[in-house]
Specification:
The protein has 947 residues and is of the alpha+beta class. Among the domains are: 45 residues; 222 residues, Penicillin-binding protein 2a (Domain 2) (Alpha-Beta Complex), CATH 3.90.1310; 56 residues, no CATH class; 65 residues, no CATH class; 114 residues. Helix content is 44%, strand content 14%. It is built from 37 helices and 27 strands. The chain starts with a helix and ends in an 8-residue tail after the last helix. It is a single-pass membrane protein.
Length: 947
């Protein structure tokens, strides 16, 4: 027994224990490597597998002949894929990347709206409300609201009422751009201390290499202790290593160091993109877009030294002709408004581009295509090493337009030249029209047989490539487009014209309590500053001037108040009904037929026609204008639109209802003041009265009551349809006197209420009188007064005359094609209205417009030299007779026309704000004719003037 016990000693126990341990380890190894080896191998591989989205090319946009106006090209992109392995190399890698980009003349992709030097936000909008909304969204997306919510509403548990959300938003707007920047520097851990930590982690084993890099990157003076500390750090456990790291950061002052602000922002752009893209899954961060091929190959050669960096290709939107057609093409940009809407549609709101204006926006769903994707395997450096599967992207549809690229080009180039000539020679006009500010204009050409737009030019324009190509939008461009210095502009504008006005007179300050930039926000109340993103062709409203006279002639002839042969003697000054209407002629033109009157654009003749139409009814002229698309009946159901696919304004001709609608508001404001002066106070200290304006101090009951009084009076002003108007308003006033604490003790008598009612009746009658003056019709007859239309409306009205009375829906798109140019859908011409004119009416009006371009004293007689017979009408549209000279503005210039005369194909309208006279714009019309009839003119051996 003793011998057996002796054999089981501590050595035996040790070997037995070791045998058990190795058996367990062996079992585990067999289980991991053999039994479950395939499972764990698959898991390891899956950890490195992801899907990289493959964006679809946007559909092309081509003109009617197939000339490409917008397409795509494959560009080289420099991207960064961060992994847990390569993230510690972030700062070192990015420094190398930035250096290589700089050396090769490339720019970092930078759509980050927070800028520096000075600190500011650059959101692509001039609208103040939109800018605030985008600033709030920017800060919320980056979590800056969280600290505010915890501080203000600690018990909310993340569920805030709308009122609380609004409070948080107000606080977010108080955070300055500089404060925002500092908060993000901290949030993204952009600091030398983080860089130092990463560097030590990289070179943990090689203390000598770490020692050299630390001195180089952080400019630390050599220290005998540093190497020893690094050796100790490299061989310490994680707890001790953390203590050593913190000591090193503190000892060498690294915690006090900061990167240069410009470098901070470079790092921030990448870190911010990573954060924003993290909401929509994995996606590489684009560091450099549209880099040159040579640069791409330089990076290819150095990928081993740049963990996480890769080079790929991606389609970029391209506009081959730059500014050409920007007015209707629009542009694309990153999603900034209503991101939730686009998330629901499957967009990646952190990086996807969408159509932001023009056709790019209107047909976003057709143009965008369907994105593809690649299932790839990444190595530990985040680089693609194998493609496992692919879903091919499908291009968007192609838009084939009615636009003729050559006609469009002729319109834009010639319009630019004409405007420049007007600016350079501002006093060429005999009547003193100063054209120095002829900086904004439009030119439109329409196919009279279909309503298709052949040209739609708006000047100044912009190059859409600036927005589709990352990095092209410079700060100077941004300021020009979205943040113009109106104060500087106004000072130069005033000085150059020696005007007796102040900056505040022209561009009054906008009260903006949230403005932290120090720059005074101003309003361009007289529409002086040229706006590249404002479509002057579809949205500028202006009196048509004498270009409206053919319409007046149509109405007069159709109503029978004139005949083609009848003459009216030009007495120069028209004085019926107390009106004082002047002809622009200095001497009488004598007895004029309608053809003669159109040829020399005689005001007196058309004043008389207007008066005769007025005798038939105040809205007689308006009824004809509506048939030709110059406004719509405000009492009817017609849609106020030419039908064009892109956004537009739609102007209106004078009519009684619109005049009442326009007059009601200013007369209401006058009435507010009058009702405050019902009686004079006995002590001589001012007046007592009834305030029907809603005040912030008013209770809901009082506000509702005042609103009811206002609405009742306005209804009577506009429509004269309130039953028992006097009794109704009188009862409401008495109720207000009884309930409003501010006037309960005024002891208003029935006599005071009668005084109030008299003032109300005076206001109602003033609106009626203002809207029914015969002078309104006289002004409208010559295209002045309240007549206001867009160049697009005017072009379509002339096209309707030219083709004999068929008004088509205006359209830009002719066909939708697939990526192989197969037709998906044809856009057929659509007739909106058929104007049935007597043959003699149409003949007389067209002959009158022919006389304009062919008579020796016709206002567009220079077009008589053009070999293709054409007709037209010039116009000069007064901006504001009382103030235009004072503020440096003058009449707008308008020209309309069509060709050929005998078989019209094309109708045009050219318009320039402050252009003086329509005759100055004839070169633009002629250039469009040249481009449209190019082949025919070549056969005539015509010497082209403009193309």
């Amino acid at each position: 027994m003793k011998e057996k016990k002796k054999r089981f000693n501590r050595y035996t126990a040790f070997f037995l224990l070791m045998a058990i341990i190795y058996s367990v380890l062996g079992y585990k190894l067999i289980d991991l490597q053999i039994v479950k080896g395939e499972y764990y191998n698959e898991r390891a591989n899956m950890a490195a597998i992801t899907e990289i989205p493959d964006p679809a090319p946007r559909g092309n946009i081509v003109d009617r002949k197939g000339v490409v106006l917008a397409n795509n090209y494959q560009s080289y992109m420099l991207v960064y894929n961060e992994t847990s392995d390569n993230k510690k190399y972030f700062f070192e890698t990015m420094d190398k990347v930035f250096n290589l980009l700089d050396k090769n003349g490339e720019m970092q992709q930078d759509d980050f709206e927070l800028k520096i030097n000075p600190f500011r936000f650059e959101f692509k909008t001039q609208d103040e409300a939109t800018r605030k909304a985008q600033e709030i969204r920017f800060k919320r997306d980056r979590g800056l609201n969280e600290a505010i919510e915890k501080k203000l509403f600690p018990d909310s548990k993340g569920k805030l009422t709308q009122g609380q959300i609004n409070t948080v938003d107000k606080e977010l707007l108080k955070i300055s751009p500089e404060e925002t920047f500092k908060l993000l520097v901290k949030q993204y851990n952009i600091s030398p201390a983080e860089d130092f930590k990463n560097l030590l982690e990289q070179y943990k084993i090689n203390a000598d290499e770490a020692y050299g890099l630390i001195q180089e990157r952080f400019h630390i003076k050599p220290s005998s202790d540093l190497k020893a500390q690094l050796e100790q750090y490299a061989h310490s456990n994680s707890k001790d290593a953390k203590v050593i790291l913190n000591n090193l950061i503190s000892e060498y002052g690294i915690d006090k160091m900061e990167y240069d602000v410009q470098l901070q922002r470079k790092y921030m752009v990448i870190r911010d993109t990573m954060k924003m893209q993290s909401f929509s899954g994995y996606k590489p961060v684009v560091i450099g877009a549209n880099i040159k091929k040579d640069t791409a190959f330089i990076f290819y050669e150095r990928l081993n030294d740049l963990p996480g960096i890769d080079v790929t290709t991606q389609p970029l939107r391209n506009y081959p002709y730059g500014e050409l057609g920007s007015s209707f093409l629009g542009y694309i940009s990153k999603i900034s408004n209503n991101p939730e809407k686009y998330k629901e549609k499957g967009y990646d709101v952190s990086s996807d581009y969408i159509g932001t204006a023009g056709l790019e926006s209107v047909y976003e769903d057709r143009l965008k295509g369907s994105n593809g994707g690649r299932i790839v395997k990444l190595n530990k450096q985040g680089r693609v090493i194998e493609e496992l599967g692919r879903r091919e992207p499908y291009p968007g549809q192609t838009l084939k337009l009615t636009i003729d690229k050559d006609v469009q080009n002729a319109a834009e180039k010639t319009l630019d030249k004409v405007m420049q000539d007007l600016q350079n020679n501002p006093s060429v006009s005999s009547d003193g029209a100063n054209t120095a500010n002829a900086t904004r204009g439009a030119a439109v050409a329409i196919d009279v047989k279909t309503g298709g737009v052949l040209a739609l030019a708006s000047r100044p324009g912009f190059d859409p490539n600036i927005f589709s190509t990352p990095g092209k939008l410079t700060t100077d461009m941004y300021n020009q487009f979205f943040n113009p210095d109106l104060e500087k502009f106004a000072k130069n504008y005033i000085a150059n014209r020696s005007l007796q006005v102040t900056v505040d007179d022209l561009f009054p300050p906008i009260n903006n309590s949230d403005n932290k930039s120090g720059k005074v926000e101003r309003k361009d109340q007289y529409d002086i500053y040229p706006k590249p993103f404002f479509n002057y062709a579809t949205s500028a409203l202006t009196p048509p001037g004498s270009t409206f006279k053919p319409l007046t002639a149509v109405a007069g002839l159709e109503e029978g108040v004139i005949t083609p042969e009848e003459t009216i003697y030009d007495n120069l000054v028209y004085t019926k009904h107390g009106y004082n209407g002047h002809s622009w002629n200095t001497s009488s033109k004598g007895a004029l037929t309608v053809i003669d009157a159109l040829a020399c654009s005689n005001n007196y003749y058309f004043f008389e026609v207007g008066d005769r139409l007025y005798q038939n009814g105040l809205d007689t002229l308006a009824n004809y204008a509506w048939k030709f698309g110059l406004g719509v009946d405000p009492k009817g159901k017609a849609t106020p639109s030419t039908g064009i696919e892109i956004p537009e304004n739609f102007g209106q001709v004078f009519n009684v209802q619109s005049a009442k609608n326009n007059a009601a508001n200013p007369h209401m404001w006058l009435l507010y003041d009058e009702l405050k002066k019902i009686r004079k106070n006995k002590d001589g200290g001012g007046y007592s009265g009834i305030d029907i304006q809603i005040q912030t101090k008013d209770s809901k009951e009082i506000s509702d009551l005042k609103g009811k009084i206002q609405d009742t009076i306005k209804q009577q002003m506009k429509f004269n349809n309130v039953n028992n108007f006097s009794d109704t308003v009188k009862g409401l006033l008495k109720e207000l006197i009884q309930k409003d604490p501010s006037i309960q003790d005024k002891n208003f008598s029935d006599g005071d209420i009668s005084t109030a009612m008299n003032k109300i009746f005076e206001a109602v009658n003033a609106v009626e009188e203002e809207a029914t003056r015969p002078g309104n019709v006289y002004n409208a007859a010559i295209g002045q007064g309240s007549d206001q239309f867009t160049p697009l409306q005017l072009a379509n009205y002339i096209a309707t005359i030219a083709n004999g009375g068929t008004r088509y829906k205006v359209h830009l798109v002719d066909q939708f094609l697939d990526s192989n140019n197969n037709v998906i859908q044809d856009v057929k011409p659509e007739v909106i209205e058929k104007v049935n004119m007597k043959p003699e009416t149409l003949k007389a009006v067209k002959e009158g417009m022919l006389a304009v371009t062919s008579y020796e004293d016709g206002t567009a007689s220079s077009l008589s030299q053009f070999p293709i017979k054409n007709a037209g009408k010039t116009g000069s549209a007064t901006f504001n007779e009382k103030i235009q000279d004072k503020i440096g503005r003058t009449s707008s210039a308008v020209f309309v026309g069509f060709a050929p005369y005998d078989d019209p194909q094309i109708a045009v309208c050219v318009f320039v704000f402050d252009g003086g006279h329509g005759g100055y714009l004839i070169p633009v019309a002629e250039a469009m004719y040249e481009a449209y009839f190019k082949d025919e003119l070549k056969n005539m051996n015509y010497h082209f003037q403009y193309n």
